[in-house]
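Protocol step 4 of 5: obtain the predicted structure for the target chain.
Materials: sequence only (see below). No template structures provided, no constraints applied. The aim of this step is simply to have a reference model before the mutagenesis design in step 5. Sequence pasted as it appears in the construct record:
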Amino acid sequence: MNRQTIMHQNNISEKKIAIFCPSLSDGGVQRVASLLSKIYHEYGCDVHVITIYNKINYPYEGSYFTLNLADFSPFNLFKNTNSFLSLRKYMKKNNFDLIIDLRSRMRLIPELLVYLFAIPLKKTIFTYHLPLITHYIPKPLFISRFFYNKAFANVAVSKSIQELLIANKINKTSVIYNPIDIDFIESKSIEELDISFDYIIGSGRMNDNIKQFDHLISAYCKSSLPTKNIHLILLGDGKIKTELKSKIEKKFKSKIHFIGFVENPFKYYANAKFFVLTSKHEGFPMVLIEALACGSPLVSYDCQTGPSEIINHNHNGILVYPNSTDKLSKAINKMYLDKEFYENCKNIAKLSVNHLDLKSIKNEWQKFTLRLQNDKV
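Step 4 output (structure tokens):
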């Protein structure tokens, strides 16, 4: 390690970092928050994870502070004055060098209040995890644009999202892909799984129909897999799970399994024939890169955004025209029935996400942070 690198790391290690996120449970953004806390902790930073909801399923490093809002409460400062005041007090007490905001930001007035009176805008990196720009840049756009362009930086998790930011005249944009901890995933993927049948798999929340599990169920039932005794496993939970179950034809019920939320999805991915994603939209979906890290090839809708930056079509998976269950069913058949094609995809799966390992993305955050410091933004 050369002297300049040591000086840079020492420079970073002196910093106090806040990671502001919805929670540490049940989602890709939450897993990113967990991993970012690890990245900055390894640099020797004083890391503070600040959450809106007090839910923890993912490990974190550093200190923890929660606003402790109820799940049903939006982060509306007019209704949660005490939470706002506690956030303001915590930020003032700690005087952070850098704040990484991973939340969605849909309400202009509350966000303006947060960044005028609680969190210093010039020290904040805003992150963008979905192509739904108004979830991050609330209307009216000309006010939000002025506001966000005064931030420390704007980081998109995919190139497609960065293009949307630029189209909306958001400046200081960069792309840093979501990281995965490959060593951790591999250690969890080899845990024993007590399942006696072959299966394909999908995973995600079932609180709404963003993941479109009804498409996956329909495509699976149309495919050849049920007659080949290949089952379908769905991981995740939510209020529409009962509705999804009720729509399955009786002859398929014994082959479609709703497992619910599991603490270790990686052993399910590792033992699956392949992973299928049918979302309406994504950002840079963690489930796809985690499945690949477990050696599972992919079949995915080419939805906006993310899958096309992860899947090398016909190499580590298949990209399918969005929302076509007929084309999805054909892709599922191809992945299973074409044995040579399948083995080629499986053999390249793990290698295709090596560049997203925590060690590599850690360097991206280091270079990014140092560049901002050197530029004195």
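Step 4 remarks: DSSP finds 15 helices and 13 strands in the chain. Residues 3-179+357-375 form a domain with the Rossmann fold fold (CATH 3.40.50.2000).
Proceed to step 5.
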